[in-house]
Amino acid sequence: MDALTVANDVVPYVTAAVAAYGGAVVTRTTDGVADATVSLGRRIVQRLWSREENRDGLRQAIEEVADDPQDDDARAALRVQVRRILRQDAELAAELARMLPARSFTASGDGAVAVETNSGVISTGDGATIQR
């Protein structure tokens, strides 16, 4: 997986951990009551934190998300910092990708389609005509 994809996939977990623990997410020990998402997010943050040269940017992004976990701009800034770290360390990107739960897609109902990536047309309409 490339750094952007991994960053997009890990930031929701990091955001959940930051929302639960605030800026202390980096030093927080395992909490028996933490749910799986927050626990995974905390472990991801700790792995990202291991890159000392990126700590200042990561710290700032974490603090902004901690101040307002619903702020789309703060989450986007966090995603940029995570992506920056992962682009510099392909092994860390691969490690974090392995930590993530398997993706699953479900489609239900008439004409429903579930795809991860599509580079063409998907048509489920009756009598649809596709022209190139």
Question: What coarse outline follows from CA principal-axis ratios?
Answer: elongated
Oligomer: single chain
Residue share in helices? 55-70%
> What can be said about the biggest beta sheet?
none
Look at the helices and sheets and give the structural class.
mainly alpha
Number of helices: 5
Strand content: under 5%
Number of domains: 1
Rg over alpha carbons: 18 Å
Name the descriptors:
132 residues, mainly alpha, 5 helices
What does it look like?
This protein has 132 residues and is mostly helical. It has one domain. Helix content is 55%, strand content 0%. It has five helices and no strands. The longest helix is centred in the N-terminal third of the chain and has 19 residues.
Summary of the model, kept short:
By secondary structure, the chain is an all-alpha fold. It has one domain.
SSE layout:
Layout: H1 3-21, H2 36-49, H3 55-67, H4 72-88, H5 90-99
